[in-house]
Amino acid sequence: MVVCGDDGLAHRLAAELRGVYREQVTLVVPPSGRRVRQPVVGRARAASAALLDMVNAAVNRSGNGDPGGADRAVEATEPTEDVLAEAGVERATALALVYDDDETNIRAALTARRLNPRLRLVLRLYNRRLGQHIEELLDQSAALATGGGPGSATGSTTVLSDADTAAPALAATALVGTSKVVETDGLLLRAVERNPPRPGEVADPGLCTLALLSATSNDPAGADGSEGSGDQGPQLLPDEAAVRAATGRGTVVLEQVSYSGPALPAGRAGVPAFKELFSRRLRWSLAGLAACVVALAVALMVVTGDHPLHATYVTLLDLFSINEPAHNADIGRQILQLLSGFVGLLLLPVLLAAVLEALGTFRSATALRKPPRGLGGHVVLLGLGKIGTRVLTRLREMDIPVVCVEADPEARGMATARRLRVPVVLGDVTQEGVLEAAKIHRAHSLLALTSVDTTNLEAVLYARSVRSRLRVVLRLYDDDFATAVYRTLRAAHPRALTRSRSVTHLAAPSFAGAMMGRQILGAIPVERRVLLFAAVEVAGHPQLEGRTVGEAFRAGAWRVLALEVSDGERVEGVAPEGARESRLVWELPDTYVLRGSDRVVLAATRRGLAELLGRRARRGVDV
Fold first, then answer.
1. Whole-angstrom Cα distance, residue 180 to residue 400?
2. Where are the beta strands (DSSP E) in 514-570?
């Protein structure tokens, strides 16, 4: 694997590939003197610096300047053709280009595709539309060079954005307090660690049981994926017999992330409701005038003995002053005509006010909404930049009420907030009254996602002074700083949930999964071990094709979790609601026979996935 970049994502990605997938990595970074100084991850930088030490050690051992199969680090200002050749792109399996500049990544990708048409490319691009075109272009180039199809496993291209990949984890952290999530088919799935059930208590298995925790783990909660210290290590993908036989051991189960709290008042963008079209005072005025017209029509019907429809018609003529004067009529008819004319004079300003209010309402239909009165249980989102916009979209897709706070009226996400009809408070979060206007005292959680670490920290500290048990999630660039903030806030507010997240830390697993192949959906740590989630075509895998779900399950190696179906397709033995509003059918019966045309989502260990996909697992690796 070759990783090229100039910021913290490259270091974190290299550490992810080596630590989780045990891959050999060549890291291409700018020289230390020319490297852009950014608040990058400390531990990941240390891991990548260890690559240089491994290179020197390998060179000293070999004596010929060739590090052999050891990991390498290459220092270069730009990923030119010579630099890519030196990094071994011609022999590499995958190349990640994660420079902060889109043009640099595209230029290097075109060069790398020419050097190795079968290379798996992963690009970091902010422009989504351009990324789709580049992905199609590079895939087509690889297909023509190798003679394979556009969707072949080799020569594939994946374009990702760190904002898009980090958004699901940030949204899930704000909702359920954990970033151990996997996204598939638009669904967010989380791994939940549960304590051992009490005697006589039946444990909820969720969608499935992924693992049994260590027998005497000191940290059963494992909120941060810390390793346990039990006498008996964790058991991944246990069978039902092992789960029933396990006593005193916690479990890791898979659940769908959902929201069931209060929702924002309904309303469609650009089409306000009737009560929003006219003010309350104007509605009462119109109702009073209508009552006067009815009363005059009834009085005219009583005085003249006319039919009710004719009496109403004559009253309207008098109201609009287009009827003949009642010179020769009796006194009662003349009085009613004068009263109708007076009501008509009152009607003119009311109609003018209604027209002006309606025009003003339609003009402000795309304007920013204010937080409604009585709102509670919502998420307060600070910052509508690149990351905040993606997180806002993810939260609204799950129907979670959100109130945004942004200081810049021309921010990137303001158009998205208008389109989604999300309330926005304009102002600096460090000033008094801004968070109060966002109803922070009744909020469920706070997401501080501005681009300034100190602003995020100050906003969180102020919010905690307003509501001490508020759930907060901070976006911080430096992992070491994020860890220090997390520990301090946890110690100061032990009964409140606090999470500090780095975007590079959250985005690196998705980039690493793309480098391993498009079938990798994500990875979830279970103490010292790692559980992978992958989408696999059943065709070509004898361990799956033609077997039932129960026969395809191999304890400790892999387990089929879901089946992807077409729209409207039904699976025998599964209720229609099993689709859970997606194209994935969960809780498959053990008797379902997997066909070659099926595509399944499965959980697997590193060694099990390597065996299933035909990759040679490395010996001596703790899987």
1. 19
2. 520-526, 529-537, 558-564
* DSSP structural state of residue 225: -
Complete DSSP assignment for 316-362: HHHHTT-SPP-SSS-HHHHHHHHHHHHHHHHHHHHHHHHHHHHHHHH
Confidence class for position 610, pLDDT limits 50, 70, 90: confident
Specify which residues 183 forms β-bridges with: 188
Contact 47, 19 (CB under 8 A): yes
- The whole-chain average pLDDT of the chain stands at 77
Is the Cβ–Cβ distance between 379 and 174 less than 8 Å? yes
Altogether, the residues listed in the chain come to a count of 623
Q: Which residues, 6+ apart, have CB-to-CB distance to 46 below 8 Å?
A: none
Q: Tell the burial category of 151 from Cβ atoms under 10 Å away from its Cβ (0-12, 13-18, 19+).
A: exposed
Q: Per the structure block, which two tokens stand in for 43?
A: 């531990």
Positive or negative: CA dihedral 204, 205, 207, 210: positive
Give me the residues paired with residue 593 across strands: 548
Q: Are the CB atoms for 592 and 571 separated by under 8 Å?
A: yes
DSSP class of residue 384? -
Reduced to 3 states (helix: H, G, I; strand: E, B; else coil), residue 234 is: coil
pLDDT digits (tens, 9 = 90+) for 169-204: 787 777 766 657 777 766 777 777 777 766 666 666
Of 518, 573, 503, the C-alpha closest to 168 is 503
pLDDT-based confidence at residue 44 (cuts at 50, 70, 90)? very low
- Would you state the pLDDT for residue 179? 56
- Separation between Cα atoms, residue 183 and residue 256, nearest integer Å: 10
Q: Quick check: 561 and 187 in contact, CB under 8 A?
A: no
Two tokens, residue 74: 């290459």
| Cβ atoms 239, 534 nearer than 8 A | no
The rounded distance, in Å, linking the Cα atoms of 259 and 187 is 12
Cα 268 to chain centroid distance, Å, stands at: 23
% helix, strand, coil for the chain, step of 5:
40, 20, 40
The pairing of strands 424-426 and 471-475 is unpaired
- What single-letter DSSP state applies at residue 178? -
Do 604 and 531 contact (CB within 8 A), yes or no?
yes
Q: Does the pLDDT value for residue 579 go beyond 70?
A: no
> 477: alpha, beta or left, given left = phi > 0 and alpha = psi -120 to 50?
alpha
Q: Which two tokens stand for residue 269?
A: 């963008």
**Residue 82 has what pLDDT?**
94
Answer yes or no: are the C-beta atoms of 42 and 502 closer than 8 Å. no
Chain segment 111-129, per-residue pLDDT in tens: 999 999 999 999 999 787 8
Strands 26-29 and 72-75 come out as parallel
Check pLDDT > 90 for residue 405.
yes
Residue 605 zone, left/alpha/beta (φ > 0; ψ -120 to 50; rest): beta
Listed range (157-161, 346-350, 475-479, 619-623) with the worst mean pLDDT: 619-623
**Tens digit of each residue's pLDDT (9 = 90 or more) over 292-340:** 989 998 998 888 888 889 888 988 888 888 888 888 888 888 888 889 8
* Backbone phi and psi for residue 427, each to the nearest 5 degrees, phi listed first: 160, 165
In 3D space, the residue among 529, 468, 603 whose CA is nearest the CA of residue 225 turns out to be 529
The least confident of 265-279, 318-332, 427-441, 546-560 is 265-279
- Rounded CA-CA distance 477/41 in Å is 7
Residue 571 is encoded by which pair of tokens?
Answer: 């699976």
